[in-house]
Amino acid sequence: MSELWSVDLYNALLVFTLPNITDIITTYNVLRRLGVEHEANILARVLFKRFGIAGGFLLKYFGMGFIILVGLLTGQLVSSIWVNNIVLALVTAWNSYVNYKYRYVVGKD
Length: 109
Fold this sequence. Notes:
Helix content: over 70%
Number of strands: 0
Number of domains: 2
């Protein structure tokens, strides 16, 4: 299954859709139970990037319960689907603008 998943795909799905920490933990636990260690480790690296070294370290070595406790204490478990959609729309619009500028403005020089 490792061939079907890539770091770029994980980064695109997990970072640009801005999931909350519980979604990442759930996916991580499912991957571990399926025996897909490679993908679970990629997910842990994404968590390192998104929530800092402490988040990734706690998920990898202490498990889900401790992360949920830390998340509750720091407010990371609160998420809003509206905020996620607005940020995703802004990122998509920015990428479209950059692609347009690169292809049609810079490319003509």
